[in-house]
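quick one before i forget lol
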Amino acid sequence: MNRILPVLTLAAMLTTGCATDRHEYVMATKDGRLLISTTRPQLVPKADLYVYWDEFGNLQTIDRADLGQVINR
């Protein structure tokens, strides 16, 4: 529960952002996966997680330690 509240707070902030931002971000994980995000991943420091919306419109999180690189496409 300690990690959920900051994530939910950031998710609410992301939904109120600019809807015309059509950038895509490619996130490379340290284990070699490529993840597509329709929003710039935002760090939640207290939870040590990045929060982002995936290409299917789902809210996702990834541990800070698992993320290797983020590229704006």
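fyi The first strand starts at residue 25 and ends at 29.
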